[in-house]
Amino acid sequence: MIITDNIKMADVILQNHHLLAVINRFGIQLGFGDKSVKEVCGDYQINSDFFLEIINAFNDPDFYPQHKLEKFPLKLIIDFLRKAHSFYLDQKIPEIASMIDNIVEASPSNQQKTMRMIQLFFGEYQQQLKEHIAREETVVYPYILKLEDYLQSKEKSKEAYDMLMIYQIENYADEHDNIEDKLKELKTIIIKYLPPQKDYLLCYKILGQLDHLEDDMNNHSEMENKVLVPRVQIMEQVLKEMEV
Question: How many domains does the chain have?
């Protein structure tokens, strides 16, 4: 189902509760009653067109608004991506880590070797994700915003031009690790090698949370690869053709 602005926001969440994490990135809190998507976006001063493109992309894997997202300012898109980073690092990753720690601690001594392997693997994934996000936050996103500002500015200094020419988005595209593969590996290890546990429900919860994180990060990467990178490549071409 395609979500439109006249649908009640509550019905959107009832249809797919995983979208709670997405609407939270827009600052939307529960308690919106029977208000429509358009009305809630108005209350929070959110661009409803942008909201709909994002929420539909996360709701339906076959819906991807690549060309529609191209009309929105990159600052708006990057702000949303940064909030996703906060969600991963501050909420979802610590939540999964805590569950893994609990199941390791509850395991008998003859299972500790296997359980520690799972714990170590997730710890390595956390570190890889932190490094990936740090690179985006400190290098890639600032570069994109400076490039957009420069092209929109009336005054174009040679110094700013030279600084922008140092970095190219293809560097980012090449180094953009497919960290989603690490999550698939972790799920495979748990499914194949996790010894029988007393708290089997916790095992299912861990797998469910890993699935949710994987889906969320796939959408996140799609937005970066299919929207950010192509737009920046076009801007870089414009920059190269300038005479400063």
Answer: 2
Residue 1 lies in a domain: no
68-89 residue pLDDT tens: 777 888 999 999 999 999 999 9
Closest residue by Cα to residue 68 from 81, 78, 77: 77
- CA dist 99 and 116 (Å) reads 13
Q: Looking at the structure, do residues 57 and 78 belong to the same domain, yes or no? A: no
pTM for this model (two decimals): 0.86
